From TrEMBL, chain A:
One of its GO terms (molecular function) is ATP hydrolysis activity. It holds the Pfam family TOBE_2. Coiled coil: none annotated. This is ABC transporter ATP-binding protein. The lineage of its organism: Bacteria, Bacillati, Bacillota, Bacilli, Bacillales. InterPro entries: AAA+_ATPase, ABC_transporter-like_ATP-bd, ABC_transporter-like_CS, ABC_transpr_MalK/UgpC-like, Mo/tungstate-bd_C_term_dom, P-loop_NTPase, Transp-assoc_OB_typ2. Residues 15-251 form the ABC transporter domain. SMART domains: AAA (SM00382). The keyword ATP-binding applies. Keywords: ATP-binding, Cell membrane, Membrane, Nucleotide-binding, Translocase, Transport. One of its GO terms (cellular component) is ATP-binding cassette (ABC) transporter complex, substrate-binding subunit-containing. SUPFAM superfamilies: MOP-like (SSF50331), P-loop containing nucleoside triphosphate hydrolases (SSF52540).
Amino acid sequence: MTNTNSNINTHSVDVKLTNLLKVFPSHNGGDNFYAVDDIELDIKAGELVTLLGPSGCGKTTTLRMLAGFELPTSGSIHIGDENVTNVPPNKRNVAMVFQSYALFPHLSVFENIAYGLRINKVPKGDVIDRTYKVISLMHLEEFKDRLPSQLSGGQQQRVALARAIVTEPKVLLFDEPLSNLDAKLREYMRDELRKIQQRLGITSLYVTHDQTEAMAISDKVVIMNHGKIQQADSPINIYTKPNNHFVAGFMGKANFLHGVVKELKNNMAMINIFGKSVLIRINDKVKLTENGPVECVTRPEFWEFSDTGKFIGQVTRTIYLGNHVEYEIAIGDDTISMMDFEHFKHGIKQEGDQVTLHLKEECVSLLPTRKEYIKEGLA
Amino acid sequence: MANIPPSTNKIESKVNGQFKRMKMLIKEPYLLALIIIIFLSLFVFSVYPIYQVFKITVINDEGIIDFSLIVETFSSSFFLKTLWNSIQLGIMSAIFGTIIGFIFAYAVTRTEMKGKKFFNLVALLPIISPPFVIALSVILLFGRNGIISNGLFGFEDSNVYGLRSLVFIQTLGFFPIAYLNLKGVLEAIDSSVEDAALNLGASRWKVFSTITLPLAVPGILSSLLLVFIKAIEDFGNPMVIAGEYQTLAVQAYLQITGMYDLRAGSFYAVALLLPSLTAYFIQKYWISKKSYVTVTGKPTQTREKINEKHIVMPLFIFCGLITGAVMLIYGTVLWGAFVKVWGVDNTLTFDNFKYTFTLGFDSVKNSLLLSALSTPITALLGMIIAFLIIRKQFIGKKIMEASSMLAFAVPGTVIGIGYILAFNQKPLLLTGTAMILIIAFTFRNITVGIEAGTNSLRQVDPSIEEASTNLGASSFTTFRKISLPLMKSALFSGLVYSFVRSMTSISAVIFLISVNWNLLTVTILSQVEDASLGAAAAYCIILIVIILIVIGLLEFFVNYLASSKRRNFR
Ligand SMILES: Nc1ncnc2c1ncn2[C@@H]1O[C@H](COP(=O)(O)OP(=O)(O)O)[C@@H](O)[C@H]1O
Ligand SMILES: [Mg+2]
């Protein structure tokens, strides 16, 4: 990126969703559908927050309520100090980048980008200046006279972003903006997008179902399931300190192991897994009782081959993936999945091989038992 | 958990939803006002006149509801004969028209037949000309002085009047409707389905009889109904050529203009309305639901066309014969326009045109002026209603949709009678004015614009409009700057259709014309009745030429508009 963007002015504001609820009435007399179920969310000024979750969990609906295309059944939305819950969508000054880009097919790239300025009665001269500024920021100079149909997917994506930021919106909304691009381009655009968002400091809400994307660009990741927020946290905490089974399972691969608490000492717990004792840091969200059950999350990379390891298992499956090897290993009655990034050192184990494994105990996190979080309505 | 207990919020959220939508509408007062205005005008100009026609048939002179009049009329043998005549005519024309239309459509969409473009073009002629041109031509060819009946075979007094001629004329005049409908259906059948059958070893005939034909059945049924409706509500052809063979539309007219009996006319109109309205709604809601054709928006792969001689040749001959007949019909009218006295003195002359220009050019001007005034209103209103129906949420949307269709689905005769009944006194004293004609044109044709508009809007991703709203545009601005330009081709066909339909319509307007505001189609009809066939032919030619010129201009204009918007601002 060059630094031609010197004066695209933005005034960062924070966004607050309070008790937001969206119920779609059923058409056939069955139960109503809670697409978004009582969401609380604060987005700090200038932050990029990602809504992440499986398809149908209510991400788009949340975003569209913020844009004003859906009216909340109850709850409120504040942008800065203003309560915008009932403000019509064309008066909100939040700009959205659509999944399908939604470029105006009959207008040139230039006119697409200038559209928002013209609509808002910006003086002619300013329209041209500001449009050109964004065109050069997005490297679209050579395409400015083309129609959207004459652009590649990546170029269309840039036009969509340019069109959104040219009006200097208070908030930027993205609905899976990269899902129509191929893998390489997606990564590139993802980084570009984050750079521009940070440079302009626009408060942003970003929807995706791709966990890598969410990890890569977010200040805060919000994991959703069935219309409810499961966890809202920094990417690191989401991965290493998942709140519950769903979050742990949704972010990357996880081996869920059932253990029994042997001893509680200070902030550590001695836990029996596969008949071996391991020492794990206690997490204050989880209530433990001595001799009670506990669920432990061990990621595949928490395991390593080591002759001094406590655990003995048998390889049941080997998948060679170039930079690492994935194994499924039977320990006792359970099967875990592990990754070995040092296969050049250890060699590639074959199915049926006996192996000794070490668990990096300091990485393991504990989850409330299923009963507990069903009781709290987090499932 | 949610802060509303689940048991109560079912109804609450539904009511709430409606209520909130209304609240959003109130935030756009212009939109709300527009919706109300559209409702009012649809009610006044579509629903109310039709209601009047019904009312007069059941309310006697003392103003009391009285069904005895209906029973009396409907059981008279003359009435029953007329009703049966119309239905018989409708059924025969529908069957022949649909068969020809299907063969045409199959040949054009499935084979490598030569001259497809030409056949296609000629098939469109009957659509853009007033239907009774064919009746006129048949008289010129087969009438008392007909060049075939008299000139070729020397029959002294051949009788062209009656059912057989009428079926011939209506088949030729309305098969293009079936053709266009079926062409769309056949094109939309996924070619891979037929390829799959071929690939599994089916012969061409097997593919046709087991795949293509069954898949086209809904289209065939809807074509039958469309042609049936057209045929029974047709007024011009039966008026000219039916002779003793009475039909409902003609009887309705004769009762009113000949006997000054509005109620008797209304009886015939209602009798006409019931079968045609039934057929229309069966076509619209039942058959179109049965359709196997799904619009995916994806371009289907180009189809391997049939090239075998033994299939293509018979089709070519058939299409050639039909096309030849259509050309003979129109050629005859063209010739007739330049001949001194048809069948008697065949010298070529401009006298007929001179006559139309000096004596009777007013009706040409009127038709042109009133059609030109109503066309943009119709097309724009059609696009607006299409936009509201597809993209906006408001109470009574279904009612708006249905009532906008009413004046189109109802036979012109009914609308014509309804308008005289509804608008002959203050505060809506419109009879005898140009206004009533413009309004009749507009509300009779608006459905065409709405259908074209809704079809094209369905193909536009709604998020394109949301993007515009999101950038700060109101509903109006979004409609004007985004939706309307994207409906360009729909707008064009809306404009063309409503212009052509206005210029060529006769069944409704014949009740509404006045001394000051006579129309071209009515003039032609009276020339035919006066046996001034040369002048009638000249008027027909003028009418067709005007229509062709205007279509050309419209196409240029719409393209120009669209491309000038696209030009960049630097
Ligand atoms: N207008 C609607 N009417 C009924 N249900 C809807 C409507 N819009 C969305 N939904 C439902 O709400 C749920 C959440 O949808 P959405 O927010 O689009 O999910 P996603 O997280 O995949 O973006 C889905 O199950 C969807 O079917
Ligand atoms: Mg979504």
